[in-house]
Amino acid sequence: MHKTPSPARPKKPGSPSRPAGTQTSERILDEAERLIATRGVFGFALRDIADPLRVRVPAIYKHYESRDDVLVAVARRFVALLSKQFSYDLAALSHPTQTLQTVIEEFARFHLTHPAYVRLSLIDFATPDGGSEYIRLAAGGPFRSNLNAGPLAPMHRRLRQLLAAGAKAGVFREISEVDFYRLIKSVLLVRLVFPDDLLGTKPVSAADRRKVERMLWETALRHVTTSL
Fold first, then answer.
1. For the chain, N or C: smaller number of CB within 10 Å?
2. How many domains does the chain have?
């Protein structure tokens, strides 16, 4: 007898799409991302990951040593994707303003698409000493060491080169890459959670996404073109 297939379940907010047959270790991280996005970094237990996957908590321990180990693994995903930000062809350095706008808007979309990573970033900034600094552990060192070594170094190098190209062309003022990144990162994170949390509970509308992209670009443009 032919069995009518059951309707597909709608994708949960904050949950990455994965093909059938994805390894359990990846499915655990997918569910952790969804929970981080909707409940926050400290708003769930391993049991909340296990139940939707129809496994017992001990099954998670076959892949990860602890809840913190799961969060560090999620952070490693974040670092791997973050390392690809501010990418452009070398020819694009001939048009620094247009290129900067493109990569800044992509930077905003990246964070809007990955709400769990926004919440992990905010937690990481809140723990200067001790505690579980997930992104620092995933990146292999303190923030400043990531500027010139480790998986995030290429991202920072590309941004430095772009800002230097703009300064050489006379369209940007001389500016520290660290100061610039600090500005856009902080402005973006706060914009996504205050005064209205745009993340986690429902997809961000195209109009809201465009507002965030425009806000971040306008902030960046004022910073690189205004003399102090």
1. N
2. 2
